[in-house]
Amino acid sequence: MAQVFKPRANTIALAVLVSIPVVVVLIFAINYQLHASPYATLMGLYVDQPVPFSHKHHVGDIGLDCRYCHTGVENAAFAGLPPTHTCMTCHSQLFTNVAMLAPVRQSLATDIPIAWNRVYKLPDYVYFDHSVHVKNGIGCSTCHGDMSKQPLTMKEAPLTMGWCLKCHRDPGPHLRPVSEVFDPHVPDPQNDPQKAVALLRHYVIETGNMTDCSTCHR
Amino acid sequence: MTDIAARSAAPAPRLEISRRAALKLFTGGMAASLAGCSPPAEKNMPYVDMPEGLVPGEPQYYATALPLGGYGRGVIVKAVDGRPVKVSGNPRHPASLGSTDVFAEAALVELYDPERSRDIRGTQPINGWTEFLGELQQWSGKAKRGEAPLHLVTSTVASPTLLGQIASLKQQYPGTRWFAYDPLGGAEGARSLIPRLDRASVIVCLGADPLGPGPMQIMVSRAFIKGRMPESPGGMSRLYAVESTWTLTGANADHRLTLPPDKIDALAMEIVGRLEGHPGSPLPLDKGARHFVDEMIADLQGAGAGGLLLPGPMLREETVQAVLQSGRRLGAPFDRAATFPAQLRPEPFAAFEEILHSGKVQNLLLLDCNPAFDAAPDAKFAEALKKVPFAVHAGLYDNETADLCRWQLPLSHPLEAWSDLTSADGTVAIVQPLIRPLYDTRSQHEILGFYAGQTAPSGYDTVRQTWKQGAQDAGFEDWWRNALVKGVVSGRSPQFALSAGNTETSQPAPSQPPLDAPADSNSFVALIQPDQTIYDGRFTNNAWLQECPKPLSKGTWTNAVSLAPEDAAALGASDGDVLAISSSAGKIEGPLRIDRGQARGVVGLTLGYGREGAGAIGNGLGYNPRLLSPGSLRNVIRGIQVKKTGRRAPIPSTQMHFSLEGDLRKLLPEVAPGGSLPASGTKPSLFVPPPPRDPYSWAMVIDTAACTGCNACVVACQVENNVPIVGPDEVANGRAMHWLRIDSYDIGTAEEPRHGFEPVPCMQCEKAPCEPVCPVEASVHDTEGLNDQVYNRCVGTRFCQSNCPYKVRRFNWFAYNSGQEYKDLGKDPMPARNNPDVTVRARGVMEKCTYCVQRISGARRDAEKADKPIADGELKTACQEACPTEAISFGNLQDKGSMVNARRADPRHFTLLEELGTRPRTTYLARVRNANPKLAGGSA
Predict the structure, then answer these.
(1) I need a labelling partner for B695 at 20 to 30 A (CA). Which of A37, B283, B849, B851 fits?
(2) Chain A residue nearest residue B37, CA to CA
(3) CB interface of A with B, residues 38-77, below 8 Å
(4) Residue B595 · residue B517 · CB < 8 Å
(5) What is the pLDDT of residues B122-149, one digit of tens each?
């Protein structure tokens, strides 16, 4: 009878044994990396819209305030998208016949809303409130980036729970003075500890419950 | 045969696929699964023209009123993005006082019921409003010429606008006759009393159930508890109940005596005689009962003007009148409910039946009533109604009566229409719509507008016209806006207002049909009462009310036949045996419930069930007691035969579900007025709670002395928290989902059985046994002391449920609210009723009371935005808000002046299952029994 195991069998067996834990670890490591990667979170992806609305033009060039269109941001959970009538405050006078704005005119004529493609989406079991963040010194650009530079809107942050918690565990460095909250040009401040404490005190932020599950899930 | 044989003999088709192709597919599948990981695309749809004042996603609140038994209760309804999601009480309205009852809480479900009547239905399938209006025009012409006078049938009408419209119809069409009835029987006699229980010191209820369901339940319960608080001026009131079957009033009484209805009637006359100073011969009673009655009368006499004798609807009308007249002379604290104005009174139902059977009715409008079910469910009535050539039924549902009519007109829900409603105490509220009608429906006012010949009647204009004073009314707009904002009308009275109370001598109430001849010893007396959760049958298709356990029996989804244990033993029947109940006029069958503390020889029956035209939820449940005496609307029927059928139909009951292990005296202690519980004393513990890291530590204290067991909190919790309905089979499996249950304890003795109620929400233990056993940390503690349940983490091991000593955790065995709903509860538009602030839980997830964490979070965010702390009493849980007796208080333990801290210092304070050391945040105050010292020894 011929030899069953060739000399290389030992090496193969050893390699298999070693690779079993390695593969397991790799599976977890890859998944861990993957779920928060831009590939899965769609971070950095420009989303096509029925009307190619440009924040770069409206915010950067013209200098419109965020709250002109996103009226709910200071008093509601949703910042809100502008009704067609808000677009028409200007566009009934300007660029009235541009083909690009046809869907807006059609929406006004037919009373059917414009269906924008959603860029920032949280799962249904997460209850996020814009107003309380804005009130407590978190600027728009901390999560949405510099809107004055985005031609189409792009998802600036991964919106994973880990990303939320980074700030909820230690909000101080991300706070900014009231005057800068709606300024798109000011990036996330990354305050030094001294300034962080001062701002926490200024906004009377109780950090005790900020990492409770019930703060966002209910 | 051969075909099948040939096919099975043929070789199975082989999948021709090479190994290479298989590997290709395999990798392709893996790549596809990776590519499929991106979240689904979603659309954002802003308004075209945003309504003024609306902020998307933020709640709006409107004051309106909801009817029950015709009368209104003021409510404030919360709407999110234009859809109503929660009903709460209106603190400015005297019939609500900021609280609700089960019916108001569950009204939303009726609005969104997929089985509501959506389209007009005539004899032809494509009939629409145009065809109806064409036919109406012909018949109106005939009515005007006196050829076919209009006959209008309604239930109790408490809308001034509707009264005005009826009056003008009567003028417009001579010979118009208006009939009104109350499905419960006498609406003007005993049921029309408003007892002022806060001013009474000794209350004797003779078959009366002032704390039971009805349009006055909230205000009467509040007044009762006001007079029951040990600290109330003039001391705590004492409540005696003499009744035949259990009622909520009997369950809350200090002393209770069971007697059959005819003896209660005789006892009422005896008491009146003794109060008036001309005692007749005393009613023969056994020794214990005689002692009880003598002491009770002595107590009542001693109370003077604070004594209140309340007659029940089971008594003869003459007795009721005698009691009331005597009460008036002695200054007893009660009022009469608002009633029809003297110049515009309807005829009774009996008159309608008479003229219907005579065949003279040609032109008939049945407005929001269902006599073919709740008044005359017999073939004779059905035949007569079918023969009416222009019979029109207008109602929310295409019900039993609609089936017999030529036309069914879909009616708008009170939350969709303009109207006005008078409450029992005479307060008027404007009813304003929260939502545009979901279907092609019309309001009552618009339908009567059609009858008055208007082509496009507007409910809004009609209601405003009622309240306008003349054509030039400068102050009207301000007044109107004010009335809408406040939810209560003041300073104006319309032409046809309900006359407020205290007019019992002006018009004799329509007499309850006299009792039949005294029964022989072999027959029973049937006593018919409104159902404690379904009321008179209007709410039969409301799954929230069906699944809400009846306060005393904890039965759900059906009505039972209750008998005294002795009678049941004589029949050889046990709980759940189907009994056949027959009278000379009809026969019904229902499952038996043996009730300790029910009078012998009495069969307890409840209304609202046995429907065929209710809808998928309500059809085929229970029996209809009106079949025993169709057409008579009587509440006491003699000469009843009871037989066993040999079949069994166990009642889905939650009585033995989630029961606690322990000593009754510790689970639900009871003290005398001013009494206190032995101080438990804090024992040394290794687990010293860390100092709070947050300014709020939430806690709840429930006063069991104030709990009347009305269930408003149970349904309020269900609506607020999207708690699903599971259906009768799952209830029987012990899978009811209510987060808040009311435990009902039998705390009496064999001679005098008594009930005690104890609402049990999550205890939010500081040392929660559910937390360490969760393998995925879905059950965790937060800094405010809440025991969070994180649905998106839960994997459904149910370890927490097993480890909870209070049995407050509920498991989604199926996707009760997300795909596997009971019957048609998942159909559109039902999901629209969900509270958007609370997750709709999926299958396999544990859930429980959260202290309404969405409200806490909302209050916290509002407080932060306003730069001020949450004040005590500003934040209310749904159960607390609903409670008519303010038994539940909720607040911050770190606020030294808060109500919860005051109640925690009360000598009646106790902790449920304290010996377990779980340190619950939900604690209790003991029951208080104000027993008569002369009776306590002998009878208690």
Answers:
(1) B849
(2) A40
(3) 40, 42, 71-72, 75-77
(4) no
(5) 877 778 899 999 999 999 999 999 899 9
